[in-house]
Amino acid sequence: MLRTLQNISISLVKNPRLLYFSFDCCPTSLCNSQSVQLIQVASLKNLRPLDSYDDIVMPEKPRLPLLLKVPNVMKPLKEPRKLIDLRGPATEGTELELDQFGLQATTAGYLKHGHFEMMRLTINRFMDTRRMFAIWRVEAPYKPITKKGQGQRMGGGKGSIDHYVTPVKPGRIVVEIGGKCELQEVEKVLKELTKKLPFRSKIVTPKVLEDDAMEEKRIEESNDNEWTFKRVVEGNYLGISKYLGPYDYKWYGKYR
Questions:
Q1: Residues facing residue 235 across a β-bridge
Q2: Residue 175 β-bridge partners
């Protein structure tokens, strides 16, 4: 239906009262005539065959499942902050499993249980389960975050566990939507999710991921500036090494 509406061409002729639908333009006799009446003719052009979706296999449970708020462990242990969980690019979960549509993080952040519930309810409410389904691409909250009560004095050891989070690095796919659907149908709900997540994200398809990789490679190859961050760091110009850390030598300032 979407493609059918997009393929209807509308041409407005010289007389503004005449609205004519055609492949190219209206006949010359109609354009030159002074006493013209409203003529409405609907026609279609460039009709592409619709996708059959024969390769799509619908799962038994198409909706997003509920994730646990607390990990199922006997005795949860407290952990340090471990900010390395947020540093640098994601090394796993960067490709689409369904090869259709997904939500990719562009910056780092923590996902709480409330964020998972927001995504689950938003997608499940929108989705037509007869021809769509969604899957999680990140784990349930597993990293403990401690917090001391309000008004406590300093000292006394590490605080008690307050909640659990899931760290997400840039480039990680958070959730995917697939099935017998097109991008125009799922774009609205994915845009709504991008406004509510605690980090920046964008809608991706296999073509978008491929274009991003090619664009990054093109920028690197066509860079005419010889004084790149990598050259300055490796050459230790102006003694810059005393202001840099180990991750500056690893990612050359790309991920801070």
A1: none
A2: 103, 136
